[in-house]
Fold:
Amino acid sequence: MRIAIPLVQGKLSLHFGHCDQFAIFEIGNGKIIGRNDETPPAHEPGLLPKWLGGIGVNVIIAGGMGQRAQQLFGQNQIEVVIGASVDTPESLVSAYLNKTLQSGENICDH
Structure:
């Protein structure tokens, strides 16, 4: 399994489309076994779900995401978790794996 976290200055970006990097976590036996930070291609509508799917991402944890983006992630067989709070990527992934990730409102309105 691979989990993506959109980052701004090393922490969760509240809007995934405005991040400067993605932390990509490799998961094995329910634990983090690796991390690789990837710089996304220039943002244009519909590109990030396809790009992340192409590098094997199965789950994205985001603060906010528009409805169209959520649909595109679904079409690329990527689970979307929205409403996460700003935290370190490791903390977010660990909470997701432990089923304790607190998610709130989707802060994106488009």
Q: What stands out?
A: The chain has a mean pLDDT of 89. The beta strands are 2-8, 11-12, 21-28, 31-38, 59-61, 79-81. The CA atoms of residues 30 and 97 lie 6 Å apart. Helices lie at 47-54, 67-75, 89-97.
